[in-house]
Amino acid sequence: MTNKYVLLMRGINVNGVSIKMKDLKEALVGLGYPDVQTILATGNIILTLDASEAFGELEIAEIAQALGKEFQYDCHLFLRTGDEIGDIVAAASASASAVEAPDEFHHYCLFCDQAEVVSELSELFASVPKAPGERFIPVGRDAFWIVPKGSTTGTDFGSKVLGKKAYKSRLTSRNINTVNKIYAICAK
Length: 188
Known about the structure:
alpha+beta, four-stranded antiparallel sheet, Alpha-Beta Plaits
């Protein structure tokens, strides 16, 4: 999977930002990435590159700028390799086994732009009231947020912390089911 790269877009197909995955794929092909797959309608992109190619933060910034211009929206991208997605899936399995009644909880992965954001979120999570069973688990530069179903925007952490504009360009979230689907495609 060393040639699989995952780009996660923040904030598409919500709050009036509508981008069809077919159009997103065409835009990326137009930017010179011929092997593009999209998963679901939430801006999950897998790019397969030649073994000699690799991404850097500058290239990601250029892609975000081009997509923002193409779709008239403030584009924020988060890059992970296929191997990193595999590590997240493995860590999620371990953390899910510690949750009582897992079917009653949402298990989110928070993809952050830097490890410092995870530390900051961890401190903020510790400082707010929590729903029963709500947890925050740092995993390197990312984190898991486990929250009772129906409480995602009703908890202090979900509404007062993750909803802050300050985090718009610093993180994006995906349900672990989506992360598992992304990993399954990367592993092919």
